[in-house]
Amino acid sequence: MNYIYAFAEDQTLTNQELGGKGANLAEMTRLGLPVPAGFTITTAACRQYLASAKQETGFLEDELMKAVHILEEKTQRQLGNAEQPLLVSVRSGAPISMPGMMDTILNLGLNDQTVIGLAEMTNDPWFAYDCYRRLIQMFGDVVYGIDKPIFEAALTALKNKRQVQKDTDLTLVDLKQLIETYKGLYVAAGQYQFPQSVDQQLRLAIEAVFKSWQNPRAQTYRRLNQIDGAMGTAVNVQQMVFGNYQGQSGTGVAFTRNPATGEPGLFGEYLLNAQGEDVVAGIRTPEPIATLKAQLPVIYEQFKTIANQLEAHYRDMQDMEFTIEAGQLYVLQTRVGKRTAPAAFRIAVDLVDEGVIDRPTAISRLKPTMIDGLLHPLFETSAVQQATQLLTGLPASPGAATGAIYFDAQKAQQAHEAGEKVVLVRQETSPEDIDGMVISEAIVTSRGGMTSHAAVVARGMGCCCVVGCQQLQVDYEQREAHFAGRVLKEGAIISVDGHTGRLYLGALPQQTGVHETTLGTVLSWCDEIAPFAVWANAETPQEVATAFEFGAQGLGLVRTEHMFFGPERIFKMRQMILATELADRQVALAALKKLQITDFKQIFSLAEERPCTIRLLDPPLHEFLPQNEVEQAELATALGISLAEIKRRIADKAEVNPMLGHRGSRLAVTYPEIYQMQVLAIVESALAVQTTYHHAVTPKIMLPLIGTATEMAYLKQLLQQTINDYLVENQQQLTYQIGTMIEIPRACLVADQIAATADFFSFGTNDLTQMTYGFSRDDIGHFMPDYQQQGLMPAEPFQTLDQDGVGALMQLAVQKGRQTKPDLSIGVCGEVGGDPTAMPFYRDLGIDYVSCSPYRVPSARLAAAQSQLTLAD
Amino acid sequence: MNYIYAFAEDQTLTNQELGGKGANLAEMTRLGLPVPAGFTITTAACRQYLASAKQETGFLEDELMKAVHILEEKTQRQLGNAEQPLLVSVRSGAPISMPGMMDTILNLGLNDQTVIGLAEMTNDPWFAYDCYRRLIQMFGDVVYGIDKPIFEAALTALKNKRQVQKDTDLTLVDLKQLIETYKGLYVAAGQYQFPQSVDQQLRLAIEAVFKSWQNPRAQTYRRLNQIDGAMGTAVNVQQMVFGNYQGQSGTGVAFTRNPATGEPGLFGEYLLNAQGEDVVAGIRTPEPIATLKAQLPVIYEQFKTIANQLEAHYRDMQDMEFTIEAGQLYVLQTRVGKRTAPAAFRIAVDLVDEGVIDRPTAISRLKPTMIDGLLHPLFETSAVQQATQLLTGLPASPGAATGAIYFDAQKAQQAHEAGEKVVLVRQETSPEDIDGMVISEAIVTSRGGMTSHAAVVARGMGCCCVVGCQQLQVDYEQREAHFAGRVLKEGAIISVDGHTGRLYLGALPQQTGVHETTLGTVLSWCDEIAPFAVWANAETPQEVATAFEFGAQGLGLVRTEHMFFGPERIFKMRQMILATELADRQVALAALKKLQITDFKQIFSLAEERPCTIRLLDPPLHEFLPQNEVEQAELATALGISLAEIKRRIADKAEVNPMLGHRGSRLAVTYPEIYQMQVLAIVESALAVQTTYHHAVTPKIMLPLIGTATEMAYLKQLLQQTINDYLVENQQQLTYQIGTMIEIPRACLVADQIAATADFFSFGTNDLTQMTYGFSRDDIGHFMPDYQQQGLMPAEPFQTLDQDGVGALMQLAVQKGRQTKPDLSIGVCGEVGGDPTAMPFYRDLGIDYVSCSPYRVPSARLAAAQSQLTLAD
Question: Which positions fall inside the PEP-utilising enzyme mobile domain (chains A, B) (predicted)?
Fold first, then answer.
């Protein structure tokens, strides 16, 4: 059995034997690229070494001698030769990448003799002795476990003595002295010696790499990443090349395309007569790669050809390191290049256009989280680094915005009307704040989580929002707010980063917005393969328009209650709620109906023939009632009853657990006239839009909070009767559906019974999660931090679908619902409808669509398509 | 095909052909009992009649003539014969009993001639003409549809004219005149005539009975009771016998055993020379059946033999009607006798002792609801009828009690200490009222349902309780209450009936309590066959003692939080809750631990070796905090902090939906020291009791509100560690279990994961129902009445297990839990643990025990056994 192979010597070997780095070097060698020569000691050797009782490399001896000999022939240099010294790197390389977890030794082959040869070869004695010094340090650390700080301390002591700041300020003499000091440290640490025998250097280095497979941080990394500990690591021994060699030499880094924009063409930088270290140390400023063309045109063209060849071979943008040694170009490494979100989209589309990859491959390379960065502004990175950070909250809705802080909706509106850019800062928001929220650049709250009112509304509007700022106290009396102790008066300017949750003092400049038409191209490919459609949750005309602009194929959730919070509307609503007689309620409802028709007409005309799912009134009625006495008094006057009576009627509606109280379809059992008004408003609007715009409208009327088949059947019959009576009376025809949210656990358990009368199902995952987990979203702040601290709740179930619990109920509901109606339309319209990690689950569930807030539609389209690709794997 | 059979002529015929009454008469005839002769026209005849286009009885004519002829021979009387007139009754009798739904005609065969013969035979002309008058009236009503009130009006007019009050004050002449008037009413109603032909009377009567099968009230009854409308009714024609005939005659009613007490021996009453009518009209007072022995010893013995024969034949206590006509005893009817609850138990046990029935039969004849009447006092029936009823509420806990009304716990206690019997009347109760509740005879609230705090606590104590009195307003300011408008001051006396939910003004006398040792006998038989055990939910020593007295085999739910509401304890509790530092909390916990040890020792010593399941602290902490400012101020002073600070800390604990908030095991994730204190209190108590009483104690420690496997595993490990550290340190040994409530829907869905670390499961059906249905028990009052009115919620799911929804989750949990641990102990400890209708479901579920409040234990034991019997069917 062989343990050592020159790069590309045996093309049947894979990552398993050669490790990732070894395979990569072999691959480049195989492609005929100018890779510095070297060989790989296989993982089998590592396993053999670690398994033997007395760990020794004796079994490798013959092969190693042969491999070194071949390498010396190839490079025309010899290990230990003082004139033409061969220097090598010894690096680990496991089958699965474990960045930085194991050890590396560079410049191996230097000793008191060969260092002189290197100094002559490079015409740079300082560099040669610095390499030697580094080898001694690295070798001591890796082979003998002499801690780096011991060497660093000696270096620092010398610099102090010489009163210099930088390593490079030391003289050649200093370096030679340091080398002697370092050698002394070996002896002091345990009677070791730095071996002057280069053969011994090589053997000890190889053993050290083998052993590093078992070091504690490598073991921890493997445990965390579930990597098999029995594999072992390969060892790569490779010729060192020098960009500071005599003649045409240099070093550089380049990408095959611009990693910031994705623009095609070589992008990178280089330095002539330099080592990679020089670039890192910032001693000299590198040149853009384009100027290499003028300086070394032949080498530039050669590199360009190589770059193209690598990109074509790996079928993705490459990030390459190269060195020119005495007019000879070497490629040291290539890997898939990291890139910004806009670049990722552009590169994906370009590679498809160029015929390099197919569309599914392009889709699979993109991440849903990249899209937020495309849709929302960002602050300039340099400005952020220098800004005064106030505090960090939860990043509830992405974006970057600057404005003057105001503490209530009314003040915010006034400032906005006066031309100010406004940031609404509150303890929490409620539906009453909606007008102030709409005109704000950003919304900040001290309470609430990722699914609080502020967060949900802001995401719906695409407005930057940070919530749950525990270090923020708003003092409404004093009109000031404490940001982690720093007091800011109303009107002060802050900047809000909705991507990170950070707040900054003052105004920060924004990056110029990147608008990518390539996004649309990729998403249209996604729609072709996605296993289900993506719809949107939206109700205002602005939200609805945004949803369709972002490619939503329908509206999965139009919440009608959000429509009742305008100043004119809420009064009618309150009048309706507080009516004690049906007749009074009917009067208020008639006024509300006119307003609802206005809303629905706008939605239906924007939606054209796309399905619109309108949910009838859902929240407990007391949410609409004023909580402070001033407003209560106003209402009393307006309704012509006493304040005491108003208070009594409001108290009457109060509930201990409103989430599980008189809301949703339960309202319609008590007050059928509310839902009857709403369905007539829907029907009249649909008919009007059909007539005006000549396109079909098929409203999907959705009943919230259905828990039993009897209430579903009862309300369906009631509303169908109401609608049909209207249609007959007015000699009109309309196709419509009456379906239900599935958001109560019981509804999942009796979904077969409910499906008998429901035309469609739509999972309301927010409520379903609340009830399945027994978690009130408004109250989990009291204990969720403790759970997360103890590691008892890895993912917030309102953000990431709980597949074991909530998901199991959803599976039951789909199976039972389709048992009754095989072609039942089923969607998911709660907060986790846009959760990318849940998409494979939704695919297996066999639903027809997910529905999420407009700004999450693009990432949901991508994630949906990707779920289909993982299936194909 | 034959349509008519003399009684017992063909013994192969069943209820289906003969109807219930016909089969019963045939059966008695077959037994050789002296039943008046007669014949049955089968249901087939009715179907034939109703099916034919022109409804006629022609097809029966020949058979009917023959049957009448045979009857005349048997009775030695002839239909229409003026000297020896045969009179018959014509009655319907359907295969399934439809009491009072169809028609009957008595004394058929009377006309202007035969009435004279009857007068002579009975030597009672008044009686004969009264019979004739009644026949004419009944016949007019049944055959021609001439409304009864028309006849009644004529009767009343005559009485007015004669200035008499009672029918019996009319003279013979008056009756004769009335008969002529009645005949005139036939003509007036539609040119009808009362037929003097007795043949015609018979044919018309038979047709009328056939038709009555289709009358509206019969149709409604069949629809409501799901009785097949195609069956038709049979018709029974039977000789009338007269207890007022010349010679030894009389009539009576008797039971084979005392229906009030169950005491063996004939029980009943009779009148000589009288018709049944006389008894009903109350003209004469009947004699006890025993005196018949002296008056007519032969007949008495004959009747006694018949009674024994009937009871032996039907194997149950019989309710019989008999008539003696001229020395000849006739049995007119026998049926299973109705009886009181104590009688039912005594009879069941006696019949088993006598070898008449076996134990399962005895068990199957009893109803779980009977037991309430055995355990709790009742008001005297006669007193209730005359009492002034105030209003009706929901009967939350059975019993009957009288006392002075008080509106708060403190006043109630003061009155109690002054020697008064007290009824606590409140809008609602809270844990703070517990001391006032304990000393009250009865508890009444205006709000809340069958599972409100008042209801649950009262049932636990076996205290009479009426809740949800919508017509009750308590005015705490004026110290008065409005009972449906009637104002009563504090201190006024009322009586409360917890069986019916009725409140009465003043004091009502109670029935002498019936304590039945037979109950214990029956329940011990039940335990032998029950498919699962019955445990109790109890925590006070009194409750625990009651539970074991009533045969609980363990404690399924000891709620530790109820122990913290005493005045001394609640302060320590508040101190613990409001502590901001762990050290302060530890001080308060140490004090609470001592008190808990006192509690647990009592429980363990009462329980002996029975299992005790102790639930650790469950409710949200703010339930323990004072809500009114006076108490808050007291607390502030006691804790040495400002009122504002107290208010702030209390507000901090407030939650929007406390039911789904920071409670149950979630408290222990935040404050592990609370549960650690509780488990150590349990362990120390168990060890102490083991030492003192020399019996093993095996505490089952129960974690509430577990929803994930991670929190179960985390808390189990934490508490196990705490306990084991203590045991090791103190060199002690103790067997204990740590299990969980299954009360969150998610827990059911991941029960396989939770079972990995839980030692047992106990379904908390209250919370499970709340979350599965999305119903807050405290708030369903806002909409449940509307649901019930619309028929959308047939049973209150907190009273009757929702098998389709909640039950489906329970099935999942049992299946998944036992998949992980095949021998996992599983119980049901919520409110529906004692629901008799759920017992067959629990049997199929395969649980180990149900646990309910102590006073429900006996009925649960009965229902559990019955569930096994239905399985055997």
Answer: 420-501
A745/B792 touch (CB, cutoff 8 Å), yes or no: no
The CA distance from B383 to B241, in Å, is: 39
Given pLDDT bands bounded at 50, 70 and 90, which one contains residue B747?
very high
Residues B444-463, mean pLDDT to the nearest whole number: 82
A526 is catalytic: no
Q: Which residues are bridge partners to A790 per DSSP?
A: none
Catalytic member of B463, B464, B829, B852: B829
- Tell me the per-residue pLDDT of B43-69, one tens digit each, with 9 for 90 and over: 999 999 999 888 888 899 999 999 999
Please report where in the chains the tokens 């122990």 appear, as a residue: B563
Facing A749 at nearest CB: one of B753, B776, B804 = B804
Q: For residues A869 and A872, what is the distance between their CA atoms, to the nearest angstrom? A: 5
Please state whether A462 falls in left (phi above 0), alpha (psi between -120 and 50) or beta. Answer: left
Q: Are residues A802 and A859 in the same domain?
A: yes
Q: Does the pLDDT at position A654 exceed 80?
A: yes
Q: Residues of A annotated in the binding site, as ranges? A: 559, 615, 743, 764-767
pLDDT tens digit string along A74-131?
999 999 999 999 999 999 999 988 877 778 899 999 999 999 999 998 888 998 999 9
Average pLDDT over residues A820-835: 95
Domain span at A19: 4-111+195-239
Q: What is the ipTM for the molecules in this complex? A: 0.81
Single pTM value for the model: 0.81
> Is pLDDT above 60 for B280?
no
Contact B708 A792 (CB under 8 A): yes
Do A753 and A612 fall within a single domain?
A: yes
Is the CB of A774 less than 8 angstroms away from the CB of B660?
yes
In a domain, B723, yes or no: yes
Identify all chain B residues contacting A801, using CB atoms and an 8 Å cutoff.
none
| Annotated binding residues of B | 559, 615, 743, 764-767
Catalytic pick among A46, A376, A416, A453:
A453
Interface test with A, best of B451, B748, B752, B771 (most A CBs within 10 A): B771
Does the annotation mark A453 as catalytic?
yes
- CATH number of A716's domain: 3.20.20.60
Query: Do A839 and A741 have their domain in common?
Result: yes
Domain assignment of residue A389, yes or no: yes
Q: Check whether residue B501 and residue B539 sit in a common domain.
A: no
A681 and A803 together in one domain: yes
Interfacial A residues in 627-666 facing B (CB < 8 Å): 653, 655-662, 666
Do residues A109 and A198 lie in contact, with contact meaning Cβ atoms separated by under 8 Å?
Answer: yes
pLDDT > 90 fraction of chain B, expressed in percent and rounded: 71
Query: Which of A865, A872, A862, A871 has the alpha carbon at shortest distance from A344?
Result: A862
User: Which chain A residues are closer than 8 Å to B802 by Cβ?
Assistant: 746
For residues A428-434, give the mean pLDDT.
Answer: 83
Calculate mean pLDDT across residues A687-700.
94
pLDDT digits (tens, 9 = 90+) for B628-670: 888 899 899 988 899 988 988 888 888 999 999 999 999 999 9
Type of residue numbered A194: F
Q: Which two tokens stand for residue B538?
A: 């109890």
Cβ-contact A711, A665 below 8 angstroms: yes
Q: Is the pLDDT of residue A507 over 60?
A: yes
- What does the DSSP 8-state code read for residue A774? T
Which residues 804-823 of chain A have a CB within 8 Å of chain B?
804-806, 808-809
Round to whole Å and give the CA distance between A323 and A320. 10
HSE at residue A3, side-chain half, CA atoms within 13 A, is 22
> Could you give the CA distance from residue A52 to residue A49 in angstroms, rounded to a whole number?
6
State the best of A667, A740, A771, A810 to mutate against chain B, taking most chain B CBs within 10 Å: A771
Cβ pair A779:B804 closer than 8 A: no
**Which one is predicted more confidently, B456 or B171?**
B171
Give yes or no for B756 touching A (CB within 8 A): no
**pLDDT for residue B338 is more than 90:** no
